[in-house]
Specification:
Layout lengths: L15 E6 L2 E10 L3 E6 L8 E7 L1 E2 L2 E2 L6 E12 L5 E7 L4 H12 L2
Antiparallel strand pairs: 1-2, 1-4, 2-3, 3-8, 4-7, 5-6, 7-8
Length: 112
């Protein structure tokens, strides 16, 4: 029996992620996205429980897709762990999403 407590299906999607943590901007990319959160790969570990401002950007050939608005949302760090090859992974839970954010999230999920 699985101990997976996730309520939303995760979609393996790699998009550019920018995290504002205090005064620092960290750049990375997503490993997967669901309706309630995201797993990201970044350069450094984050503190569990930290609040971050998250921006997810669809790209085409490494350049921001001009036809798609980014998803900007507040999120909470649920876990963070170092990766053997350097850098870190973190699980972020989205804060409350408004209709615009839900629409932009749906666009990201449809890109899978």
């Amino acid at each position: 029996m699985s101990d997976n407590r996730r309520r939303d299906t995760r979609h393996e999607i790699s998009v550019t992620a920018e995290l504002l943590v205090g005064d620092d901007v960290l750049e990375g990319h997503t490993r997967d996205i669901s309706g309630s959160g995201v797993s990201v790969e970044i350069d450094q570990e984050l503190n569990d429980g930290a609040e971050v401002a998250l921006t997810l950007l669809l790209t085409q050939g490494g350049i921001e897709d001009p036809t798609t608005e980014p998803l900007e949302v507040n999120a909470t760090v649920m876990w963070s762990a170092p990766k053997e090859e350097g850098g870190a992974m973190a699980g972020l839970r989205f804060g409350e999403l408004d209709q615009t954010q839900k629409s932009r999230l749906a666009t990201l999920l449809e890109s899978a």
